[in-house]
Structure formats: structure tokens, C-alpha cells
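step 3/5: co-fold with threonylcarbamoyladenylate
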Amino acid sequence: MYKLTGIKMEENLRIATIVRKTDENQTDDLIIEEAAGILRAGGLVAFPTETVYGLGADALHEKASMKIYEAKGRPSDNPLIVHIADEAQLESIVKTVPDKARALMKAFWPGPLTIIFRKSDTVPGGTTGGLDTVAVRMPEHKIALELIRASGLPIAAPSANTSGRPSPTNAMHVYEDLNGRIDMIIDGGTVGIGIESTIIDVTCEPPMILRPGYITKEKLERVIGPVAVDKAVSEPVSPHVIPRAPGMKYKHYAPEADFTMFSGEADKVARHINRLTEEKLRQGFKVGVIASDETVDKYRSGDVVSLGTRKNDITVARNLYRVLREFDNKKVDYIFGETFTDDEFGQAIMNRLCKAAGYQIEIVT
Ligand code: TXA
Ligand code: MG
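step 4/5: write C-alpha cells
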């Protein structure tokens, strides 16, 4: 059983999960209609988005949203992101749309940007974890958009993983975590971006990034001017740093192994990791090593995996959660990893890596 934060999972909760495969470029209407029917009836459907797979339910139906918390083992004070397919759907769920939000929507929707608004009374507290704000995103993935449109509903969808595990980047990851707990999985292949959307709060001034993602601070500032970043993005949560996105306070994106990252000059880092790996192997532990295409040949032992080339952060992001999951499946005891650059999209990658490692980073000199 995986480590859970907060609520306990009911072990006897088992339903038959339907798995259907369809292609993003040629979606099967029958499959979309079947899934939309499940959503309208208050059921749970996992579907691909361009960031990670989401676990969808009717966002306006409190009982349906509550089922998401139960299936994921998610603490119920952690609000859900509401997914929409067109701007008309937005008007009914928010109180006002600030000018800066309009500019962001025009620039980045559909796409991997979630915007926090003041919520209208139609959105139940069960969907927003009791907050008076609501997080909204218009995804870019065709299967996601067609499913939302066919259902005729705003769809609440957190990442489709068991709470505390890395987010799913393919349908098999969803199946591993949620088979028997949800009604349906739409298998639309591997996602494009691989880490969750950027979250920006426009209810405050200046607007504030609560979670970094593919839409970087630089890109946002080009559209709306200065943007702040929540402290919890770059620091471990402590009594002094309380994140504005409740989800960021939980130990998220966590592999089962004890994960430490090492930063410094590439040759020195590799030598240090090799030494540690050999020591742990001698003690009988299983060790995973996270490297990059540029450095992978420097490692001598352990299960060495490259996240991709340092020249392309998209590849690194896309491989990240899959690699962490594979280490879990292989029951690795220790993961030793390199750090990656933290400019632009790299900020989001390092944010997820730091959280996965519980902020254990050592500088090698
Ligand atoms: O890319 C994504 O955003 C994916 C796909 C499926 O769209 N979804 C996703 O959802 O990552 P989830 O539930 O794993 O993460 C949602 C985050 C949590 O950290 C939550 O606390 C925060 O959004 N959040 C949701 N509503 C909020 C609100 N009203 N105020 C502040 N934070 C909020
Ligand atoms: Mg999540």
C-alpha cells in the first residue's frame, strides 16, 4: 500500500473500471459519449490532458466531487481544478473576470495555465475545499476538450494518481493507482508536457504564481506585467511558509525511495554519486541514479536512468514522473540524482524534483 496523507482509503471500495483507447488526432465519438454519460451520471472518468492525466467528475455536483477525494485518498481540504471547454462555461462558475485574467486567457487558453478566480455560488464547497475561490483551466488536449463539451459540464479534475504519488503521464500509471476505484480510463497515449499546469492567482495584486509550470513567470509577465511567486514554490513548507495552494503543503510527487539530489560540477557530482551508490549496493540496498544524456556515461553502478538531454527541458519534464514511478515499481531504496537548471521551464522541473526529494539537496565541492 502506498503512503497516504490524511484520509484513509476504504479497502473494500472496488468497481469495474472500463479502459478505452482512442487517438487524440482521431477521437472515437462513441468512447467520448460513453465517458460523458458516466460524468453526467455522477461517475469518475480519467482522461489525458496536455500536462498529466486528470481524474474527472461533475464539478457542480458535490457528491461526484467527493468521490474524487475518496478514490485518490486525497485530503478534502485540497481543492480541485475545474476544467472548461469554452469561455461561456467560465461565466457561470466565477463572480468576476479581472482584466488581467482576460489577457491571460487570450494569451494562454486553451493551454497549461490554471487561473484562480472568486467563485460563484453554483460551485459547491466540496469542489473548492471550502475556499471562496475556484481554480479554472481550459486544457488544450483534444480528448479533454471533446469530453468536457460532450458532457455539457465543467469538470473537476485533479491529477489521476493516488494522493502522494507522482502524477500519471500515461494511462498505465492511472491504472496502477486507480483500477477498481473509478468508472473509466480513456487511454490517449503519453502526455506532451509531463508536469502539471502553472497556477496563477489573479484575486490578489500583483497576481501570484502558486505552482510553476510550462507557462513560465517570464511568459506571464510579458502579458500582464509584474507577477509574484508564492514562497512555498521554492522553500520547504514550514510553520513560516504556508502555501496559498493547499495542495503544495502535502508531500507531493513523492517516490517511495529516499531521494537526494547533488549539485555541482558534473564530474565531481558523478564521482560522489558513484561512491555513494557503491556503498549502498554493498549494504544490500537497491539504488536508482538520475542522470542526463550528457552525463549518463559517467555512472558505473546502480540502475542509471537519463531524464533526457539538458538542451531540451520538455524531454526532461516528460520523463520525470515516469522515471520516479519506475523506481517505485522496482522497489528501489535510494535514488541519487543530478540537479537541473532552474531558469524558465526549469523552475517547474526543479520545483517537482525538490518536492520529490523532500528538499534533500547536497552541494558537492
Ligand atoms: O495540469 C494540471 O493542472 C492537472 C491536469 C489534470 O489539469 N491537474 C492538477 O490538479 O494538477 P491537482 O489537483 O493535482 O492540483 C491542483 C492544485 C493543488 O495544489 C490545489 O491545492 C490547487 O491546485 N488549487 C486548486 N484550487 C485552488 C484554489 N481555489 N486556491 C488555491 N489553490 C488551489
Ligand atoms: Mg496532483
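step 5/5: annotate
Residues 49, 51-52, 54, 78-81, 114, 116, 128, 131, 133-135, 137, 139, 157-159, 196-197, 199, 210, 244-248 surround threonylcarbamoyladenylate (ligand 1) (CB under 6 Å).
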